[in-house]
TrEMBL record:
Domain annotation Metallo-beta-lactamase: ranges: 38-210
Annotated InterPro entries: LACTB2_WH, Metallo-B-lactamas, RibonucZ/Hydroxyglut_hydro, Sec-metab_biosynth-thioest, WH-like_DNA-bd_sf
Protein name in the entry: MBL fold metallo-hydrolase
Pfam families to which the protein is assigned, alphabetical: Lactamase_B, WHD_BLACT
């Protein structure tokens, strides 16, 4: 995995930061090896009606920080890119406090007793409206249009702010790390197609749920596609040497990896292997993979 080192503290947790005339962000107090300094909630709108994107964890201090940033404005939409527990659980309590509808991605809960290396799914998420690809929410001076980007999760959406050229990318493209793609719901083939879709767009800046704004988005996406292709080639090369189980790939492919990210790396390799298997390039027998 490609990750950045944490910036020095203090981080701007709970503080509304103005990123551009229509966009503010509020950092949630949930830092971790998988969320960087925390989940970033965005408030879109400069007048009396605003949208909240990725309200984050159901943390009372964070909800209060969002409400303080909103001030006297009316929240007309609470929008979620996907339903991992660091993104959507605050939607329900925020809706209760504001009366705003919850809109955006479809509900999705994957039941599993396996240890997860991302944030598990939010079973409380109940949208009032699911946005289809290309549908939009509007307010005074702003339009947020849904862009379906499956891969990190099957229900993942990005939201394009048409007035400024910004794209809210959730976890699909992040400002600090490559996205984790975890089977069975995460799909590497879909993820690559979604990256290619973003590369074909003309967005000028990405605001992700974790990390700083991405000011050269096309360059970054091109590099991410190249990075994933490099990982795919590494897997094929290693399998060309001998058949092996997934844990055997990690020391060769992820030198110097934080041990806390080992499971995430294994799941990323598994996602690549499943995609290669679908394409007829590799096969498995029990827990051992080989080339065809």
């Amino acid at each position: 995995m490609q990750v950045m080192a944490l910036p020095p503290e203090p981080w701007p947790t709970g503080i509304a930061e103005q990123l551009e005339p229509l966009v503010r962000r509020v950092l949630a107090p949930n830092p971790s090896p998988y969320t960087f300094t925390g989940t970033q909630t965005y408030i879109v709108g400069a007048e009396d009606k605003v949208a909240v994107i990725d309200p984050g964890p159901a943390d009372e201090a964070h909800i209060e920080a969002i409400l303080a940033a909103v001030g006297d404005a009316q929240v007309t939409a609470i929008m979620c890119t996907h339903t991992h527990r660091d993104h959507s659980p605050a939607a329900a309590p925020l809706a209760e406090r504001t009366g705003a509808p919850i809109v955006g991605c479809a509900p999705l809960v994957i039941e599993s007793d396996l240890p997860r290396s991302d944030e598990a799914f939010d079973p409380t998420y109940a949208p009032d409206r699911v946005l289809e690809d290309g549908e939009a929410m509007t307010g005074p001076g702003w339009t947020l249009r849904a862009v379906h980007t499956p891969g990190h999760t099957s229900n993942h959406l990005c939201f394009a702010l048409e007035e400024s050229g910004a794209l809210f990318t959730g976890d699909h493209v992040m400002g600090w790390s490559t996205s984790v793609v975890i089977p069975p719901d995460g799909d590497m083939g879909h993820y690559m197609k979604s990256l290619e879709r973003l590369q074909s767009r003309g967005d000028t800046v990405y605001y992700s749920a974790h990390g700083e704004p991405i000011t050269k988005p096309q360059q970054l996406v091109r590099g991410m596609i190249g990075h994933r292709r490099q990982r795919e080639n590494q897997i094929l090369r290693l399998l060309g040497e001998r058949a092996r189980p997934i844990p055997d790939f990690i020391p060769e492919m992820y030198k110097g990896l934080d041990p806390r990210l080992n499971k995430a790396a294994q799941m990323s390799v598994e996602a690549h292997l499943i995609d290669l298997e679908r394409r007829g390039l590799v096969a498995r027998s029990e827990h051992v993979w080989k080339t065809i």
